[in-house]
Amino acid sequence: MPTFTTTDGTRLACHLRGEGELLAVLPGGPMRASAYLGDLGGLGAHRRLALLDLRGTGDSATPTDPATYRCDRMVEDVAAWLDHLDLLAHSAGAALAMLYAARHPHRIRRLLLITPNPAALGLRTTPADRLAAAALRTHEPWFPEAYPAFRAWLADETDFDDVFLPFFHGRWDATARAHADAEPEQSNGEAGERYFAKGVFTPDATRAALAALAAPVLVYAGEFDGGPRPDLARRIAESFPDAELTVQPGAGHYPWLDDPEEFRKRITAFLGR
Predict the structure, then answer these.
(1) How far, in Å, CA of 221 to CA of 233, rounded?
(2) pLDDT one-digit tens code per residue, 89-115
(3) Are the beta carbons of 90 and 37 closer than 8 angstroms?
(4) CA separation for the pair 94, 78 (Å, rounded)
(5) Residues 233, 219 contacting (CB under 8 angstroms)
């Protein structure tokens, strides 16, 4: 397990899986240990994955200053680790990847944003987006119980309830359940609350910088994902001069779990450009 020390002295770890050319990977959560990514549905058979544990998660050390859990403060963690490689980022990790690309555009060869959080661009997923995506699942046996609880949570009327976890997955099977059950022990709650702190993002400046990014970008969405829905993912792609959007049928927020073969095929095709 390789480790390195950041500019403030925090020791960070990354996990290597698979064989082939290196592909750097940033996890989401926010602030969930990279273990949840596994080998991205078998992608490690095609690329050597370097999965970073962000500060205070997984095998990385806890920083002295909790304020450094802010997304913008961790850009230099990525800079200390990454130099001119392909970069894949999932969910909240995509916000960090976009800030990194804006600040260090020449150090990215290709950028892959998997079901990305678009906060760095000043965009956001709304409750209406999530409910519209949820409404696509009316045929599922768990829908009648899950939907009212999901709607109440989005209206800030109740706390998060495991009953609506299926909405985050394209297939609510044993694999998805095990993946969801592992989240609490893999996540740093305090760090996650600080990740999107007020003032973290400057969308106008980020958009201006990304408009000049030369690296090819893949924005990857799931048909059933509420955050981002495919139409919002299209707006994310439009923020880059050389970007393509792909939507995986039947996929939720973790597309490599829903159809690993389809995920691998689409990712390797982009990396082979």
Answers:
(1) 6
(2) 999 999 999 999 999 999 999 999 999
(3) yes
(4) 12
(5) yes
User: Cis ω on the peptide bond leading into residue 228 (within 30° of 0)?
Assistant: yes
Whether 213 contacts 238, CB under 8 Å: no
**Pairing relationship of beta strands 108-114 and 85-90 according to DSSP bridges:** parallel
Tokens of 98: 């976009």
Alpha-carbon Rg for the chain, nearest whole angstrom, is 18
Nearest to 75 by CA among 106, 54, 48, 49: 54
Q: How many CB atoms lie within 10 A of CB 156?
A: 8
Q: Are strands 3-5 and 11-17 parallel, antiparallel or unpaired?
A: antiparallel
Q: Which structural domains are found in the chain, ordered by start?
A: 3-126+186-271 (3.40.50.1820)
Whether omega before 30 lies within 30 degrees of 0, making that bond cis, reads yes
Torsion angle of the four alpha carbons 77, 34, 47, 272, in this order, in degrees rounded to the nearest 10: -70
Long-range contact set of residues 210-213: C-beta below 8 Å, sequence gap at least 24: 210/98, 210/101, 210/102, 210/105, 210/121, 210/239, 210/240, 211/239, 211/240, 211/241, 212/105, 212/241, 213/101, 213/102, 213/105, 213/108, 213/111, 213/240, 213/241, 213/242
Describe the strand order of the beta sheet including 108-114 as a list of residue ranges.
3-5, 11-17, 48-53, 22-26, 85-90, 108-114, 217-222, 243-248
Does 178 score more than 90 pLDDT?
yes
Integer Cα distance of 271 and 18 in angstroms: 16
Count the alpha carbons within 13 Å of 228 in the hemisphere toward its beta carbon: 29
pLDDT of residue 273: 82
